[in-house]
Amino acid sequence: MQVRSSVPHRPDETLDDRAHRIPECARLRGRYAGRVSDSTASDSYKQAGVDTAAGDRAVELMKAAVGRTHGSEVVGGVGGFAGLFDVSALRDYRRPLLATSTDGVGTKIAIAIALDKHDTIGHDLVGMVVDDIVVVGARPLFMTDYIACGKVVPERIATIVEGIARACADTGTALVGGETAEHPGLMAVDDYDVAGAAVGAVEADAVLGPEKVQHGDVVVAIASSGLHSNGFSLVRRIVTRRGLALTDHADEFGGPVGATLLEPTRLYTRQLLRLLDDVPDAVHAFSHVTGGGIAANLARVLPRGAWVELDRSTWSPQPVFRVLAEWGDLSLGDTEGTWNLGVGMIAIVSQQAASSVTHALTASGLPAWVAGRVTIGERDLDGFEQGAKGVDGGAVRLVGAYA
User: Fold this and answer.
1) 27: nearest Cα among 12, 13, 14, 43
2) What percent of the chain has pLDDT over 90?
3) Other beta carbons within 10 Å of 135
4) Which residues does residue 309 pair with via DSSP β-bridges, in sequence order?
5) Is the dihedral angle over the CA atoms 22, 54, 75, 101 positive or is it negative?
6) Straight-line distance from the first to the last Cα atom of the chain, in angstroms, rounded to the nearest whole number
7) 295-352 residue pLDDT tens
8) Which residues partner with 399 through β-bridges?
9) Which residues contact residue 156 at a Cβ distance below 8 angstroms, ignoring those fewer than 6 apart?
10) Is 121 exposed, middle or buried (0-12, 13-18, 19+ CB in 10 A)?
11) Residues 150, 121: contact at Cβ < 8 Å?
12) Smallest Cα–Cα separation from 294: which of 213, 161, 207, 388?
């Protein structure tokens, strides 16, 4: 490609040298050298609210944390146009299926922004994305993230991504790429949103789901760490109407309101994958309890004609749920379609394996207990949850009173 210019050319002078010497060539220097120049044009972009240098600084700050999630399967490093992942291991699968999931963390971000505490939001994101992949029995391979913000503050962006990277390392997931986009005028200076997508792999005949669920299967509830990342629009409404600031101390919480609300989402990946290895053929389905609550999410992984009555008396929701419900003049039952109420994941297992599954999960640090059984047969389904998320599956309702 030939570049024409009326600016005199010096012998042995490169285009980049020339651009440094001659302001009129600054735009060429920025484009061909692959970096932002100090030209009038780039100054205008910065004046418009986009600081690409800050973005580069954020990448430098996060590189080490991201690199710690990389095993030998990751090809190349940080900064490419696309992340590369070696899937040669899939040649050992008989019929490999790829599983993918994408999600965000909702308005929980508003709590983090208000407290200027951003080290756990990335952890929440991984929990929301990667644990959805495990639901079908897949092992996560890699993940990418996307952060949109009003203004790039390098340290803040790096802190968010470091949280993502720590959780990726915990779940055995490589963080192979991401994007940070600055949206001045569209988002306020301190606003941001974060989303991610992950890919995993599973043998076709090992996929978990409704097809494997049988009459008499046992429903094992697995404890959440708290609110996780759902229902925060209701949470924030309750706190606001209560007249509380997030920095206020709440005796009911035993500390600041915001700190309790930012409790990170529990990660289930490693323990559930270990369970699948240690107790083969015991698990028929998993359900990740996210938006919509316990009943709706469990119904999604039941076959048509199956129903479950979950016994509330088998567990006691954590104080955060009880306190928020009381502050909002709600019963716990009123919030069952919004919050997880202490159950973050559910396993549907064979009758014979129920005891070994609950023992193995509890021993791995995930408190678990039997909360119901699967029945396949006709009955009146009045009061049951059905058809959640467009899935024409089974039916679930909660019965009894919480412990």
Assistant:
1) 43
2) 75
3) 22
4) 397
5) negative
6) 75
7) 999 999 999 999 999 999 999 999 999 999 999 999 999 999 999 999 999 999 999 9
8) 311
9) 118, 192
10) buried
11) no
12) 388
